[in-house]
Amino acid sequence: MKRIAIDMDDVMADFSAKYARLFNEKFDLDLTKEQLAREDVRHLHKEFMDEIMIRLEDPTFFRDLEVMADSQEVIKDLSEHYEIFIATAAMEVPASFNAKFEWLKEHFPFLEQMNIVFCGDKSVIHADYLIDDNTKNFKGFKGEGILFSAPHNMDETHQPRVSTWQEIRQYLLADQVKA
Amino acid sequence: MKRIAIDMDDVMADFSAKYARLFNEKFDLDLTKEQLAREDVRHLHKEFMDEIMIRLEDPTFFRDLEVMADSQEVIKDLSEHYEIFIATAAMEVPASFNAKFEWLKEHFPFLEQMNIVFCGDKSVIHADYLIDDNTKNFKGFKGEGILFSAPHNMDETHQPRVSTWQEIRQYLLADQVKA
Q1: Interface membership of B75 toward A (CB under 8 Å)
Q2: Cβ within 8 Å of residue B5, ≥6 positions away
Q3: pLDDT at B173 over 70
Q4: For position A176, what pLDDT does the model report?
Q5: How many Cβ atoms are within 10 Å of B5's Cβ, its own excluded?
Q6: Hey, are the CB atoms on B123 and A118 less than 8 Å from each other?
């Protein structure tokens, strides 16, 4: 059975949506998470940096993120054909450990607890696929990196790229049937 | 540069010593951690199981474990020749996340934070070596498992086996010089 490692933020959990809400609150704007990548607001992200870093230190920050559309259903289906591991760079924000764990337990209760990985450098992950929104995490990874589209990675040329969980289903379950 | 993954409990942190202290307190005994494996006290471990499971849920349990002899010095030396990752099965005891992280920061401040991995099933670890006291963690691991002797694994036949951090130095730094 092949193994898929799945990132959390902006793949399973809508980090960018919460970021957008806080960003909009601060600057009295009403941008979508996609519009956050606009050239004309890039300087505001720098201004927002210190504040968001402080907010990330709040142990509850990651607890109320919304679940990405269709991720529960598709991961459940994938788990019938693949070993599923969750690989999140929690070491970047150690305050997030408990919130991330509880979030997974609430929204993905079918996952194996022993298959959750809190790491930093993802080159340590041994898997056939890694679904992630950051191409930096594919460096040193020996399997196939599948880029999950997010506002901050639209300029990246990495392939394969998927934009929705339904596209992941198509890519990985079609592949499974062929195998 | 080759990569070494290192387990925490009973390899870097003296879990068995704290277990022995609590066990002795409960049964009014004065056994060493090695004597805990004695045939005549095995029934007491079963009796102690419920209590220790409750104690492990205390978020501070892992915070005051003693550092295994010579581990700091040898891991520091190894880090000059190898990439060092810490791979602990923290998912077995989620209450331990923060204590384990703080313990590493205190006693091994030279380690890269991004190279700490809290996992469960260690077959997800991609490394050349895994130093661990549980042979179950070598199953599915693609590198070489190095068994660190502990009271509970003395009946195991796995090789290579090391009993001290000085033996690890000899095994892995001699190997490095040859490479």
Answers
A1: no
A2: A124, B85, B86, B87, B117, B122, B125, B127, B129, B130, B131, B143
A3: yes
A4: 62
A5: 27
A6: no
Residue by residue, DSSP assigns A93-133 as: SGGGHHHHHHHHHHH-TTS-GGGEEE-SSGGGB--SEEEES
Nearest to A6 by CA among A125, A124, A92: A125
Structure tokens at B177: 């010089």
Cis peptide, bond prior to residue A109, ω within 30 of zero: no
Nearest to A116 among B101, B120, B123 (CB): B120
Question: Which single residue is written with the structure tokens 């331990």?
Answer: B96
Return the H-helix or E-strand segment holding A17: helix A15-27
Query: What ipTM score was computed for the predicted complex, to two decimals?
Result: 0.95
Q: What is the pTM of this model?
A: 0.95
Distance CA B134, CA B131 (A): 9
Residues of chain B with Cβ-Cβ distance to A85 below 8 Å are 121, 124
* Sheet containing B3-6: order of strands: A161-162, A144-148, A129-132, A3-6, A83-88, A116-118, B116-118, B83-88, B3-6, B129-132, B144-148, B161-162
Placement of tokens 């010579």 in the chain: B70
pLDDT of residue B174: 86
Q: What pLDDT score was predicted for residue A174?
A: 86
Q: pLDDT digits over A17-57, tens only?
A: 999 999 999 999 999 999 998 889 999 999 999 999 999 99
Q: Residue B82, SS3?
A: coil
Give the pLDDT score at B37: 87
DSSP codes, A21-59: HHHHHHHT----TTGGG-GGGHHHHHHHHHHHHHHHTST
Q: Does A34 touch chain B (CB under 8 A)?
A: no
Q: Which two tokens stand for residue A1?
A: 């059975």
